[in-house]
Amino acid sequence: MSRWRYFFKRLLLSVPVLFMVMTFIFILLRMGPVDPVAARLGPEASGAEAERMRERLGLNDPLWEQYLDFVTNFLTFDLGQSWVIYGDMEVTRIITFAGPPTLWLGFWAVLLPLFIGIPLGFYAGLNPNSGGDYLASVGGILWQAMPNFWLSIILLAVLRQTKGGGWFGFDWYTFGPDITGLSITGTPDLAFLSISSIDVAGAISIPLLTGVDWGALAVDIKLILPPAIVLGSASMAAELRIGRTAILETINSNYVETAKAKGLKDRAIVWKHVFRNALIPLVPVITNEAFLLMGGSVIVESIFNINGLGRIFFLATVQGDLPLAGALLFVFTLLIIFLNIFQDLLYTIIDPRVGYER
Amino acid sequence: MLAALGGTATVGLAGCSALLSDDEEDDDDSTGDYETSEHADKAQAAWERIIENPGPDAEDTRTQAYVEIEEAVRDDMVLLPTHHGKGEFFWYDYVDMPKVGALGRHHVQHNRTEVDGDTELNLINATFDELDPIMSTDTASGEVIAQIYETLTTYPAGVAEIENNLLDSFETSEDGLTWTLTLKDGVQFHDGRDLTADDVVYSFRRLAESEYSERVNFITESTGGLGIEHETDDEGGIVPDSLGIEVIDDLTLEVTLREPNPAALDVLSYDGFAIVPEGLVGDIEGYDGEVTHDEFRTEMANGTGPFEYDQFSPGESMRVVRNDNYHGTVASVESLHWEIIEEPEAKFTYSMEQNADFFEIPTNQYDPELIDAETDDRGRESGTYGPVENDETLNYLGVPELSTFYFGFNVSHVPKPVREAVAYVTNHEEFIEDVLLNRGFPAFSFTPPAMWPTGQDGYEGWVDEWPYSPNETDREGARSVLEDAGFTEDDPFEMEITVYETSPAFQDMAEQVREKLSGLGVNVTSQSTQFSTLIDRGEDGDLEMFSLGWIWSWPDVAYGHFGFEPKNTDTSKMPGEANGYYLDWQENLDEEA
C-alpha cells in the first residue's frame, strides 16, 4: 500500500467514527437521565409549562424523526440552540464569540511547549548528565506534577497580590504593558486587528487587514500569558522529557556512529540527522497535546474566567444544557478527527516507512 | 476533554441504576410494610381551610392552619429543615448603598447607590441569558432586569415590606375579587412614550399568553400566583385576550381574580409582571411587534427603570446607563457594569483587584473571625470585615434570607422511625458552624422566622417545643425509636441520601448523618447527582432522603405551604397535575384522592 493510499484510508475511516459520535450524542440527549426541560425551568414551574416547552422544542415528535433531523442538522453545521446557559441562542453564534478566545489561549499554550519544552529537551539530550540536564529534567518532572487547577489558583493569588508592588517591588499590573485598570482574569478583547472591507465592483466585499494596534496586542498577550503558561506547562514538561529521550536514542544509534566515523562535523550530524529522527516520536505527542489542551482549557478557562468554549462546555455539563454540551462535543470531535488526520499527514511526510508494510 | 466526558458518563450511569432500582422497589416494597405517617389528614384539612378562607377577615383561620401544617410536617417528619439562607455582602468604603433586605440583592435598584470618586458602579453577576422579564427565573437576570424594568409594586432593596412603584393607588371590591388599579401619572419609558393602562394589559397578556413565558402559573394560579380570571383552551393554554383585565381610562384598569387573594400586591412585584411598552414584541395574538423576540431577549430593552440598556456580551459583561428621565430618584452613578464570573477564585481575584465595588466572598477565602458586626431589628448583621488580602477593611452585611434548605423524605420509601432518627441525630448548630462556617441560620420550620404566621414570640415558642433534641446529637433518642420499630444493627434499614452536586454543604451533611446513624439500625449510603437529575428522580418518586431548597419570591406563607398539601405531593401525578414537594405524603390519607 502506498503512503497516500494509507492516508486516504485513514481519512475514510473517520466517517463512521463521526456517525458513531453523533448517535452517541443523540442517545445522551434524548434518552439520558437529564431532562433539559426540567433543568431549564427549575423546580417552581408547573407541569403544563414543561409540556408546552417540550412541544415548542420538538421533543414530542417520533424518535426516528428527531434522529434524522439531528443528524442532517449537524452535518449541515446547524448545531441547534442552547437551552439553559444561553437560552435559545444558536450554538454557531456561541462558537463565533467563544471560539476566538479559546484559539488565542490554545495558540499561546502550544507555543510554550514547542519553543521552550522541545528545545530544552534537545539541549538536555545533547548534554546528558550535565548540570543543565539535571536542572531541566527535574524542573520538568516538577512542572508535570503540578495539576492545572492548583497552578491556576496559585498563579492568580500570587499575581493579584503584586498589585501596588509585591516582592522586590515587582508589580505584574504595571510590568510591561500597563493593565492597572483591568483584571488578570477575564476574556481578552482580541480587537487589536483593524479590518475594513473594500467593495469590489459594488458586489463582493473583501476584508482587508488595515492595521494592528500594537498596544492592544501587547495587552492581550500579557493577559493570556498566565493561563497559557498553566495550560502549556504539563505539555511542556512532557515534551521536554520525551525530547530528551528521543535525542539520546538517536545519538546512540548506529547511523550516527557511521556519520561520525565518516568524519561529519557534529553540527551537521545534529541538524541534519538527529533532529529529524528525534521528531518522529514527538509527532503523536504534539498532536495529542492538542486533545489535552482542549480538556485543560475547561479548567483553566473557568478559573481565569475566559468566556471560551472550554468554560461554556463546563457550564453546559454542570447545568444540564445537553443540546449545547452535545453540539460542543461534536465540534471537539471534529477537531480531534481533523487532528488525527493531520497527524497521519505529518507521519506520511516525515517518516517514509509509514504505510509500506501492511 | 476526557475528564469532562467521564463526568457526563457517570451521571448517565447514576441515572440508569436509579431507574433499575426503581423497578425493583416497585415490585417488592410498595407502601404497605410500614406505617408511614399519621398527620397527612391534618395537613390536608388545614390546606383546604386556607383555600376556602382567602378573605382578609379570615387571617386568623389561615394563621392557625399554617401552624397546623408545620406541626403535621414536624410530627410526621416528612421534611427536616436544616437551615435558612444567609446573604452576605461585602463592599468597599467608597460605596454607599441601601441595606439589602431578606428578599435578596436582585431587588436592589441602584438609583440610591453612590460611588465616591467614580461614575460607574462595578458588580459581579452569574451567567444569565435573557432580559425579557417573562423569561427571567434566575436572580442573575433579575438583578439586571430590576434596573431596566419596573413592576407595579416593589420591595425596596429587598426589604419584605411591599410598596407601590408604578402603582399610584388601588381599591378592592367587597368580595375581594375586583381590584381597581390606578397608575402613577407622568411615567415615561426609555424611548419617551408615556406609561398607560394598555401597556399593563399587554405586559400581563405576554406573561400569560406568550410562548416564551416561563411562569404562566404566577398569573393564572390562585395559590402561588395572582389567580387572574381567564379562559383556557382544550390544550390547557390561555385563550388569547381572555384575561380578566379591563382598561377604564388611560391610567386606570380593573383586574378580576377568580378567588380573593390576600397576596395579590406581593405577587405583582414579581419580575414577570414588569411593564413593557404595548406592542414591543409580537409574541402574542394581535401584535406584529416592533422588534423580534430574539432582539428583545438580549440586544435591546425599553422599560421605565432608573437605568437604560447599553451593552450586553453574553457570558462576559453587561452595562446599563442612567435614565435622566426617571420618575423616581434619578441615579447618582452614570452607569452600572456587571462582570459575569462563575468561578469563586476568579470572583475573589476580581474583587481584590478592586475591579468590583460590591461582591461576595467565596467559602475558601472566608474567615468568620474577621467579622465585626451588630444585629439590627431585622436580624441583619452589619459592620465591617477585614482586613482582607489587599489590606482594605470592607463593609459587611449579613442578611437572613427568605429561603429554607432541607432534607426531604419520600414517605413511601422511608418509614417514620427512620425519619425521626435522622431528626434526632441532627445537630443544627453544629452543622451551621462546622459545615456552613456560620453562613446560614438554623431552621426548625419550613417557614422562615421572619414570616412566621404567629410572629416572633410564636416562633420562639415553636423552637422551644421542637421535639427532636434540637442542637444535640441524640443517638439514644434515635436508637429508641428505631428499636421500637425493629430496626437494629443486625437488621438495619437501608437508605440512600441523594444530594445535588452544586451543594458541597449537603454532601458533608449527608456524610455526618451516615456517621451519626451508624450502628443504630440505619445503613446510609449517600450519592450526589446533578440538580436536574435529582428533580427528575423526585418527580418519578424514586428518591428516599434528598436535599433541596425553597426560595420565596414574595413573603407569603402559602407560597411555600402549597407544596405540603398531601394530595399535591403525589409523585405519580408529577410533573403534570401535582407540583408539591417529592414526599408522596398522600399515601396515608384516609380517603384516597
- N-end to C-end Cα span of chain B: 50 Å
How many helices of chain B in DSSP terms?
16
Shape by Cα distribution of chain A? globular
Kindly name the structural category of chain A.
Answer: mainly alpha
What shape does the CA trace of chain B take?
A: globular
Classify the beta-strand content of chain A into a percent band. Answer: under 5%
Element string of chain A (H = helix, E = strand): HHHHHHHEEHHHHH
Radius of gyration of chain A: 25 Å
Query: Main interface pair?
Result: A-B, 66 and 65 residues
Task: Give the N-to-C terminal Cα separation of chain A.
Answer: 7 Å
What strand order characterises the main sheet of chain A? 1-2
Low-confidence stretches of chain A: none
Q: Provide the gyration radius of chain B in Å.
A: 25 Å
Helix content of chain A: 55-70%
Largest sheet of chain A: 2 strands, antiparallel
Q: Report the average pLDDT across residues of chain B.
A: 88
Q: Please report the number of helical segments of chain A.
A: 12
| Percent range for β-strand residues of chain B | 15-25%
Helix content of chain B: 25-40%
Oligomeric organization of the protein chains: heterodimer
Count of individual beta strands of chain A: 2
Can you tell me about this structure?
Chain A: Belongs to the binding-protein-dependent transport system permease family. Chain A: It is a multi-pass membrane protein. Chain A: It is found in: Cell membrane. Chain A: Residues 99-343 form the ABC transmembrane type-1 domain. Chain A: Pfam families: BPD_transp_1 (PF00528), BPD_transp_1_N (PF19300). The complex is a heterodimer of chains A (358) and B (593). Chain A is built from 12 helices and 2 strands. Chain A is mainly α. In chain A, strand 1 (193-200) and strand 2 form a beta hairpin. Chain A starts with a helix and ends in an 8-residue tail after the last helix. Chain B is of the alpha+beta class and 593 residues long. Chain B is 28% helix and 20% strand. Chain B is built from 16 helices and 21 strands. Chain B has helices at 2-28, 40-52, 59-76, 139-148, 197-209, 217-220, 264-267, 293-298, 344-352, 416-425, 428-434, 455-464, 475-484, 504-517, 531-539, 558-561; strands spanning 79-91, 95-96, 114-115, 120-125, 153-154, 163-164, 167-172, 178-183, 245-249, 252-256, 307-313, 317-322, 335-340, 358-359, 371-375, 381-385, 394-409, 441-442, 493-500, 522-529, 545-551. In chain B, strands 1, 14, 15, 16, 17, 18, 19, 20 and 21 form a 9-stranded mixed sheet that branches. In chain B, strands 4-13-12-11 form a 4-stranded mixed sheet, with helices on one face. A 4-stranded antiparallel sheet of chain B has the order 7-8-10-9, covered by helices on one side.
